[in-house]
Design a protein that fits this description.
Elements lengths: L3 E3 L3 E5 L5 H7 L3 H6 L8 H13 L3 E8 L2 E9 L8 E6 L8 H15 L7 E4 L4 H9 L2 E9 L2 E8 L3
Antiparallel strand pairs: 1-2, 2-3, 3-4, 4-5, 6-8, 7-8
């Protein structure tokens, strides 16, 4: 996977320690807390530690999405313990939702993912109440595979359909 992507309006680059303040803000938004969960990142020091753990983990891919040099969201590909394949994800600050930014950023990463020779299948999970994520996953070409429970949380499991 590439370190950087560009689209019509956006620049994506791999998460770095300089993104810590933004990550602290993102993981404490109401949408993140409701649909993804508490990460207990309450200070810049905690955010730096959180980001450093992500950067040091070779099975986590996080890209910071920027619009006019302002960080507005993230795109992720993560290997989760409860899934046999990588999990695709995204999260954006509330003021940048429903403007096509998530679709644009996700498409840039997914288009590259699909060019990997013999690319593996890709999954995505969301809680059933997260209707915006469900619509975006379907728009991106993910199809509902099954309902699962992970860490006592009911989830919808999606699989990226091959074009």
């Amino acid at each position: 996977m590439k370190q950087k992507y560009t689209s019509q309006r956006l620049e994506l680059s791999r998460l770095s320690l300089s993104d810590s303040e933004f990550i602290q803000q993102l993981v404490n938004t109401p949408g993140w807390l409701k649909f993804i969960g508490e990460r207990n990142v309450k200070s810049i020091a905690m955010a730096i530690e959180y980001v450093d753990k992500i950067i040091q983990n070779p099975i986590l891919y996080y890209w910071t999405v920027r619009y006019n040099d302002i960080p507005i969201g993230i795109i992720t590909i993560i290997q989760r313990d409860y899934l046999p394949l990588q999990d695709f994800g995204f999260a954006f600050l509330p003021q940048y939702e429903k403007q096509g930014f998530a679709f644009e950023a996700a498409t840039a990463v997914l288009n590259d993912f699909k060019t990997i020779e013999n690319h593996p299948e890709l999954l995505a999970t969301t809680v059933p109440a997260n209707e915006n994520s469900i619509r975006l996953l379907e728009k991106l070409g993910f199809g509902l595979k099954e309902k699962i429970v992970a860490n006592d949380v009911p989830l919808l499991l999606y699989k990226l359909n091959d074009d």
